[in-house]
Amino acid sequence: MDPIRFLTGEPALQIGKSLVVADLHLGIEREFYQSGIKFPSQTEKIAKRMDGLIKETKAERLVILGDVKHKVPGISIQEMREVPEFLNHLSEKAKVDIVAGNHDGGLEKFAPPQVRIHPGSGFALDGIYFSHGHAWPGGEFLSCSHIIIGHQHPFIEFRDRLGYRFREPVWVRGALDRDRLKERYKEIPGKLPELVIMPAFNELSGGAAINLRMDAESVRNFIGPVMKAADEKKLRIYLLDGTYLGSLPDLKKKL
Asked: Which tens digits make up the pLDDT trace of 108-150?
């Protein structure tokens, strides 16, 4: 039985009593503002979405797979003001665990003490391994049934006959490549964990169209070591409403 429940229409999943999300990028509006584009802060809106999902799933734990804040390097004034309040609010609803992402430098200095921040390599919980995806996971992930990561912000690009294009966030599920893992880890078990790649929770954070053909080994163009260890031929793509689009190689052929 699959221990993972994907929440229909949301870039979030449930595992037992845990709600899992990735890539919040709080404070990204500041970057848009510096480019001449004005967006109001999305932090309160994201908090309300989280509240609704925690209530819907009756989650007792919230696991955030990295990139809670956006600015890198450093911390913006907006993040310094909004992120502690955001995390304080959520910690009143559920226990909060954060895997540090590549945008989370300095987060531990102003996160509330009741929020646990794990290293970027990730951590295991109830046989599932959680990691952001920008760093190699600890070797114990190999004994888990699944490894769940963010970082990639996966999208699929659609094109019509007139050349118009649009993108939709997607879930990616699939297998890891045993030979690529051998380059990093000494002992590889007979059965490898299944890879699950989460869409970004923040709708403004953008992403990569993973079905664009780049070269003969395009999986190596994905960001992060975990993605580069994926077996591209066995990656399956799903829309947020659960629609199965096909394998990644098949989607590339349709472009």
From this structure: 988 999 999 999 999 999 999 999 999 999 999 999 999 999 9
User: How far is C-alpha 40 from the geometric centre of its chain's CA atoms?
Assistant: 23
The dihedrals phi and psi of 73, each to the nearest 5 degrees, come to -80, 170
E strand or H helix that includes residue 62: strand 61-64
Tokens of 129: 């391994």
Query: How many C-alpha atoms does 146 have within 13 Å on its Cβ side?
Result: 18
- The pLDDT of residue 172 is 96
Report the alpha-carbon distance of residue 134 to residue 127 in Å, rounded: 21
**Domains in the chain, CATH or no CATH each:** 4-253 (3.60.21)
For residue 81, how many other CB atoms are within 10 A of its CB?
14
For 89-103, the pLDDT digits (tens) are 999 999 999 999 999
Give the CA angle between residues 122, 124, 128 to the nearest 5°.
115
63 contacts 101 by C-beta, under 8 angstroms: no
Q: Which residues contact 160 (CB under 8 A, 6 or more apart)?
A: none
In what helix (H) or strand (E) does residue 118 lie, and over which residues does it extend? Answer: strand 116-118
> How big is the CA angle at 100 (ends 99 and 101), to the nearest 5 degrees?
110
**CA distances for 63 relative to 56, 116, 228, 236, angstroms:** 16, 10, 24, 24
- pTM (predicted TM-score): 0.92
